[in-house]
């Protein structure tokens, strides 16, 4: 016997889980979310780049299409959130400048530009002079870069707050605590909380990010192949208006770095990437490297106040792409493994999972990311 019954339970209240809960509630479902620490998650550390073009990788074409689809949803997604809550999301159509550190980097950017152009993606190569004209705060002597006018940003912390408020206004209930999936026979029927409370549901959505494989109750062969990837971001402050008009990213001697300007004078610098299990302790070397490389591109940041060091865990998957859709167990849906694209993919994931739950049909855009693609790897 379940203490509480609901249409859907979402395990995890990060950006993905909160967005799924909101969209499901909009479709008239009763929704309960469960999380041991709703105030923290990968969203708290994430910088909020919405960058399918400057994140382009040759071997990730299905993921590129998913990223572009989700980016196209962002203007209406954030406008709807702000209309519903009266809260900002930090969505800014600012464009992104990818900086070449040296001639080899510039050659790589030219190759990516040609590749992207062949796919119909719009970007512009920049000379060193054009680069400094767009962003005068950049270091002198950089040979050139790439402008992706449609790669934007959002503030994940503001976005997450708005999602939680919007979901709560539609009756979504949040329960704080760890949960195990309640499997009876050949289907998931809800979750069991650590205190023994049983929550019944027609559908359980696993959106626990880097902890998704750790959620108890799952048959071993169905545990999603998701691992934690440690990342650190820094938040810096300079007095006065922002020195930058665009997101700036680059690679300094082969090490990637990015800087996002916020309208409040904050600069988000990221991000390190380490295979360190569930360790979330800040690492001094990573902080030093981020500050060093960010100042190499934007020397004025040397005068900034170091306001915050934040560490989080991205949910990585074997192919760096999410697991979206039926888990292989009736009543259990996966929405996890988004790795570095969780914030970008929140709109398309939420829309698709809500569609699956209410109609039984997985939208075509999510089909390449069905968890079944890893069936052989997990048996």
Task: Explain what this protein looks like in three dimensions.
- With 379 residues, the chain is α/β, with parallel strands linked by helices.
- It folds into 3 domains: 170 residues, FAD/NAD(P)-binding domain (3-Layer(bba) Sandwich); 54 residues, no CATH class; 90 residues, D-Amino Acid Oxidase, subunit A, domain 2 (D-Amino Acid Oxidase, Chain A, domain 2), CATH 3.30.9.10.
- The chain is 28% helix and 28% strand.
- The chain is built from 8 helices and 18 strands.
- The strands form 3 sheets. Strands 1, 2, 8, 9, 10, 11, 17 and 18 form an 8-stranded mixed beta sheet that branches.
- Helix 1 runs parallel beside helix 6, helix 1 packs across helix 8 and helix 3 crosses helix 8.
- The longest helix is centred in the first third of the chain and has 25 residues.
- The model has no long low-confidence stretch (mean pLDDT 94).
Short description:
A hairpin with a 5-residue loop joins strand 17 and strand 18. Helix content is about 30%, strand content about 30%.
The proportion of residues in beta strands is: 25-35%
Count of discrete structural domains = 3
Tell me how many strands there are. 18
CATH architecture of the largest domain: 3-Layer(bba) Sandwich
Q: State the CATH superfamily name of the largest domain.
A: FAD/NAD(P)-binding domain
- Total number of helices: 8
Find the CATH topology of the largest domain.
FAD/NAD(P)-binding domain
Enumerate the spans where pLDDT stays under 50 for 5 or more consecutive residues.
none
Specify Rg, calculated over alpha carbons.
Answer: 21 Å
What is the class of the largest domain in the CATH system?
Answer: Alpha Beta
Gap between N and C termini:
32 Å
Structural class, from helix and strand content?
Answer: alpha/beta
Per the principal axes of the C-alpha atoms, what is the gross shape?
A: globular
SSE topology string = EHEHEHEHEHEEHEEEEEEEEHEEEH
Rounded mean pLDDT is: 94
Helix content: 25-40%
């Amino acid at each position: 016997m379940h203490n509480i019954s609901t249409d859907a339970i979402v395990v995890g209240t990060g950006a993905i889980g909160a967005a799924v809960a909101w969209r499901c509630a909009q479709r008239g479902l009763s929704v309960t979310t469960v999380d041991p620490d709703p105030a923290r998650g990968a969203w708290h550390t994430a910088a909020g780049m919405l960058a399918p073009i400057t994140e382009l990788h040759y071997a990730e074409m299905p993921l590129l299409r998913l990223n572009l689809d989700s980016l196209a949803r962002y203007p209406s997604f954030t406008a709807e959130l702000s209309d519903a809550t009266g809260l900002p999301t930090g969505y800014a159509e600012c464009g992104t400048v990818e900086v070449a550190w040296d001639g080899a980097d510039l050659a790589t950017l030219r190759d990516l530009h040609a590749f992207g152009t062949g796919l119909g993606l719009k970007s512009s190569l920049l000379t060193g002079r054009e680069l400094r004209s767009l962003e005068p705060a950049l270091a002198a002597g950089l040979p050139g870069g790439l402008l992706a006018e449609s790669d934007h940003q959002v503030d994940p912390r503001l976005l997450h707050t708005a999602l939680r408020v919007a979901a709560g206004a539609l009756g979504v209930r949040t329960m704080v605590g760890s949960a195990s999936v309640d499997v009876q026979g050949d289907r998931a029927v809800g979750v069991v909380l650590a205190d023994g409370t049983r929550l019944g549901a027609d559908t359980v959505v696993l959106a626990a990010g880097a902890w998704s494989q750790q959620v108890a109750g799952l048959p071993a062969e169905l545990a999603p192949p998701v691992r934690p990837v440690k990342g650190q971001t820094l938040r810096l402050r300079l007095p006065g208006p922002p020195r930058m008009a665009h997101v700036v990213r680059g690679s300094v001697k082969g090490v990637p770095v990015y800087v996002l300007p916020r309208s409040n004078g904050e600069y988000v610098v990221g991000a390190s990437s380490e295979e360190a299990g569930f360790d979330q302790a800040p690492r001094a070397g990573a902080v030093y490297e981020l500050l060093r490389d960010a100042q190499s591109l934007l020397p004025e940041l040397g005068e900034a106040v170091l306001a915050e060091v934040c560490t989080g865990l991205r949910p990585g998957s074997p192919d760096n792409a999410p697991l979206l859709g039926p888990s292989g167990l009736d009543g259990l849906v996966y929405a996890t493994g988004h790795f570095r694209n969780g914030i970008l993919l929140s709109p398309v994931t939420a829309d698709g999972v809500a569609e699956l739950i209410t109609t039984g049909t997985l939208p075509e855009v999510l089909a390449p990311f069905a968890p079944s693609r890893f069936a052989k790897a997990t048996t």
